[in-house]
Amino acid sequence: MTPDHSPDHSPGFYGLVGPNAAGKTHYLRSLFGPGAALVPAAADALFVGRTVRDHLAWAAEAKPLDEISLDISESSHLNSLSVGQRRELTFAVALAANEPILLLDEPFDGLDINTRIRLRARLIDYIAADPGRTVIMASHRAEDLAGLAEHVIQVFGREVSDPVALDEARTRFPVLSGDGGDPGQLLAGLDVVSVSTLGPAWRAQLAQPLDRDVPGATVDYPDDAALIDLLASRKA
Q: Transmembrane ranges (predicted)?
């Protein structure tokens, strides 16, 4: 399906993944409208007025806002704000809009670790406060989505997938480990993403459910971050 024909989203947290220029931002913008709040990519963020107070007043005219939690003085000049402070301001306005759908386009991109941790904690509190909310977040960093996303939506060439449950997708990407033998021969005929070796030990990431025994191999499955990385580059 194309970004203009989007799937229905039940409440929950969705990671939006895919290669660069695949259409993730276009898809988020296609969902933006009444009932949705958007945190755009940093380069696309719009600020109005001279001060934080001016910007908040402008935002409140467009949409009545709940109480805003902001660690920035309202008298601060917009042109004096750091990248992280600008992101916090955009984030705070979107959360205060209290819409049923929250759209996030690379919200943690370019932020230092402390700001990233603070905004992530604020997002977790926002989700916990109302389980009926839907959050869709695009990120090229799997670690930003891990622990938050229960599903991913894949975008490849402007084609948008239905939501993919991580727990269901995990079994399609087994990880095999062995301590001897030739992995090239042992894994022949399987869809292998990568193989790493250290002496006789080897480890292989597959992109298909395991349908046969591999002698001497143990089977494991990727954690959420590794799985999301795989789903960002391969259709489920």
A: none
Cross-strand pairs, 104: 39, 137
- Say if residue 55 is exposed, middle or buried (CB neighbours under 10 Å; 0-12, 13-18, 19+): buried
Q: Is residue 32 part of a domain?
A: yes
Q: List the CATH number of the domain containing 62.
A: 3.40.50.300
Kindly write down the DSSP assignment for every residue of 59-77, as one continuous string.
HHHHS-------SS-TTSB
**Number of separate domains in the chain:** 2
Query: Token pair of 158, please?
Result: 């402007």
Alpha carbons 29 and 47: distance in angstroms, whole number: 18
pLDDT category of residue 2 using cuts at 50, 70 and 90: very low
8 Å CB contact between 208 and 191: yes
pLDDT tens-digit series, residues 102-117? 999 999 998 999 999 9
pTM beyond 0.85: the answer is yes
Q: Which element (helix H / strand E) includes 35?
A: none
Domain hosting 211: range is 174-220
